[in-house]
Amino acid sequence: MQSIHVDTFDDWRDAARRLLASGVSPTDVQWIGGTERSLFDDEPSPTAADLGGEGTTPSVPKAFLELARYVASHRESGRWSLLYRTLWRLTHGERHLLEVTTDDDVYRLTQMRKAVSRDIHKMKAFVRFRKVDTIDAEEQFVAWHRSDHRILRLAAPFFARRFSGMHWSILTPDESVTWDQTSLHYGPGVPASEAPSEDALEDLWKAYYASIFNPARVKVAAMKREMPVRHWPTLPEAELIDDLLREAPARADAMIQTNEGFAETAAHFMPEHGDLVSLRQAASTCRACPLHQCATQTVFGEGSPTARIVLVGEQPGDREDIEGHPFVGPAGKLLDEALKQAGIERREVYITNVVKHFKFRETETPRGKRRLHQKPDSREIYACRPWLEAELAAIGPQVIVCLGATAAQALFGRDFAITKDRGNVMRTDWCDITIATWHPAAILRMQDAARQSQMRTQLVEDLASVK
Amino acid sequence: MDVRDKLQVLADAAKYDASCASSGAKTTRPGSTIGSTEGMGICHSYTPDGRCVSLLKILLTNYCIYDCQYCVNRISSDTPRARFTVDEVVSLTMEFYKRNYIEGLFLSSGIIQTSDYTMEQLIAVAKKLRTEQRYGGYIHLKTIPNASQSLIEEAGLWADRLSVNIELPTEGDLYKLAPEKKKPQIEGAMAGIRDKIDETKQEQKAGFKPPRFTPAGQSTQMIVGATDAPDVEVLKTASQLYSVQNLRRVYYSAYSPIPHADARLPGQSPPLVREHRLYQADWLIRFYGFDASEIVAEADQNLSLDIDPKLAWALANRHYFPVDVNKASREELLRVPGIGARNVKRILNIRRFQSLASGDMKKLRVAWNRAKFFVLTANHNPALLNLDKLDLRSKAEPKTKQLMLFDAASSALSGEV
Ligand code: SF4
């Protein structure tokens, strides 16, 4: 029985090669390894050298050497003898042994290799460089990392390739390595207490980490499985985890609170019968969007139930909201005049709005409170549109006139540009002749007098064109 | 607003994008001194929601002139807004990368001014990283809808991967929820990238050294559950994209109720498990020779949520079984529930030297609890008696539903079944 001391893969390979050449069976060797001697002790392993001259070594599958290199970094003490036994079997009639992954020895080796690979992967992932004082205007980065196995030499070349233009060191309790932008230099192990303690950039990194966490999906076990807790001390972001978890329920609640998507549409308030009387009745209690809360009442469409022309505006204004009828304020007056000039009787048409409640912002003026019109957003328009669709279905008009951009976009889609397509006859799902023209309120708001009268003329022309 | 505040807003806004995985080109970019794309898929951290952090995933800005209803950045949303400068993104990427926090940059943006203007800004970031910083790490740029072809081609010179998001499974869905985005335009942009990739490959083959063009290919993202399009539609669209546009990856993002969401969207997210099932089905299409329409066995055209798609297929196609692990072809073995592609390869190797019994299958770590009902092994396999029994489904169903949820979190990376 021979006893052989080995510390590194190279030791083992030299020894194994000689033993194999001299035909020494695995049962006749005792491998002694795992001494805490540092890899930097350059003294050669005396026992390995004692093994005598090289004989002819039978060829060994390349895959085995690679496997052995990984397994050698594992901390388990039985690895050297397991490797030699496998080598022996491979060269003594079981050439394809490695393919038989169900074999006990191969299985154990594979498991060890997996553990080492995983550990290397974790080093690549969890090394965190910290910038230290610059030397000669050159940035210096240092990381401290604790690996499960002795993998620094397997992992370091990766860092050298990735951070080739950077001066860095990785310290581990077993050994350390420095890259000077040309080559890797290995040195003794370093305790965590000697590692740099912080980097100003960590604050930004933590801010990023906290922002990408979705509090509605907490999966702590999954996180711990992939990012083992033993690595947390060297990960700056890990110190946020407790707080993030504690705040998660409240943040998730807040997300739901601001989630307009939890509201409904007017479709939920549709009456059984789609006639105008039932619709008007049902709309008076609509709560599909928050607009009903501040407005006085629902302002539903009005006019002839058999109208040939339906006019659609944006939303009721201040006066409409108080009186409960569409187009009765200043804009309504202007519309009435335009209709008259175009030769259309108001009582022959049906007039309604895309949104049925008044949306406004309250401001203090020297003369008291004023309610300022606010444009409905797409969420409110969408919520309210079922009413308009039901009105159109009940009437079945031959002509629809959209007054203003909001109404036009509600019917033609959002890329409709009123300045470009005003007055053009288009076909929609609701009727063959659909046009868009200026909203009377837009005309009233126009400062430029010449432009204002031009718009007014165009409104009359557009109305007359569909008479 | 300082960089930290912007980072909070613009990282938060990007977190709904699923295409997070980095996968790299095999060779290092010539002339780079910091960064490589080897060792693809390193996750540098994990958040408490179980998701991995591998990229600095941010938007250049979350202002947007569009109004896509599933998107938190749409013009009508009242979310807080911010905008990075090109230099800020370059510096953040370099500083994070040098500290080994990230594997690269995933940069997307809301549309500001015009599509081309926005695209130019994204290109400026990538170009600066490559030329001024000599950065060789991963860059994924999300192309801006309707940006001109010449800009997309320029982006491909600097980026490792480009993505053009298909957004929604069907044309009708797009029409409804993202009227500004049109399917022909989206597919046209994809085809443009594919042509350029092909062209680059041709030139390489002919012995020229063309400039790199998106060496990691192109990918896309589809939002699932925002409309009622069933899984079969989702998968058909995906497999078409794989075959016609030669995409590397299709990412599925379960629509999650976003703050400030639009009312036409469902208030509740479809279960995460649906996302997971789609990744599994996607995997079956790409690597297992399944067809999109045969995978969906349920009457409602959706994948089953309680069992994986391969098991569902096997239960619906029992005449196909049992499969003999010692004799069956590769294609047949690939269809056995619980046996993944890697194990099929191992089985084929081992059986050249010895035959496999059920004990060996367990050692290979196949999911024996599922596989055992469908295979013949060298020894007696009593579970096989259940193959024709009505209650097979309940026997083969996984007992631990909880675990399935954890898998769902990582399923974007591998949908292996
Ligand atoms: S604005 Fe329309 S949808 Fe909103 S509550 Fe009023 S009627 Fe209903």
From TrEMBL, chain A:
Task: Fetch the SMART domains from UniProt.
Answer: UDG (SM00986), UreE_C (SM00987)
Q: Which GO terms describe its biological process?
A: DNA repair
Using the UniProt annotation, give all residue ranges assigned to the region (Disordered).
Answer: 37-56
Which Pfam families does the UniProt entry name for this protein? DUF4130 (PF13566), UDG (PF03167)
Q: Which residues form the Uracil-DNA glycosylase-like domain?
A: 300-464
Keyword annotations for this protein, in alphabetical order, are:
4Fe-4S, DNA damage, DNA repair, Hydrolase, Iron, Iron-sulfur, Metal-binding
Query: Gene3D superfamilies, alphabetically?
Result: Uracil-DNA glycosylase-like domain
Q: Name one GO molecular function term.
A: 4 iron, 4 sulfur cluster binding
Q: Which family does it belong to?
A: Belongs to the uracil-DNA glycosylase (UDG) superfamily. Type 4 (UDGa) family.
> What protein name is recorded for this chain?
Type-4 uracil-DNA glycosylase
Upper classification of the source organism reads: Bacteria, Pseudomonadati, Planctomycetota, Planctomycetia, Pirellulales
Automatic annotation (TrEMBL), chain B:
The entry lists its GO molecular-function terms as: catalytic activity; iron-sulfur cluster binding; metal ion binding
Q: Which organism is it from?
A: Rosistilla ulvae
**Keyword annotations:** Iron, Iron-sulfur, Metal-binding, S-adenosyl-L-methionine
Top-level taxon of origin: Bacteria
Q: Which cofactors are reported in the record for this sequence?
A: [4Fe-4S] cluster
- NCBIfam families assigned to the protein according to its UniProt record, in alphabetical order: rSAM_link_UDG
Q: Which Gene3D superfamilies match?
A: Aldolase class I (3.20.20.70), Photosystem II 12 kDa extrinsic protein (1.10.150.320)
Protein known as: DNA modification/repair radical SAM protein
